[in-house]
Amino acid sequence: xxxxxxxxxxxxxxxxxxxxxxxxxxxxxxxxxxxxxxxxxxxxxxxxxxxxxxxxxxxxxxxxxxxxxxxxxxxxxxxxx
Length: 81
Known about the structure:
25% strand; alpha+beta; 2 helices; two-stranded parallel sheet; 81 residues; elongated
């Protein structure tokens, strides 16, 4: 549980400029389709304890679709380094 809590979530993907507009749009649409089909990607992780004692077992739960897929663009087009 502690290791998972320290992990950084995936917030998006960067696509370098230079692709054709059609290829860029196809990539963006493909990523959006994956996000919409997997509600866990727009979910929120919460921690639940079975009791108030510090040694009690802790569990992580995911609440799917907390953040609507359309509220965040997962693809950014950036200039290459």
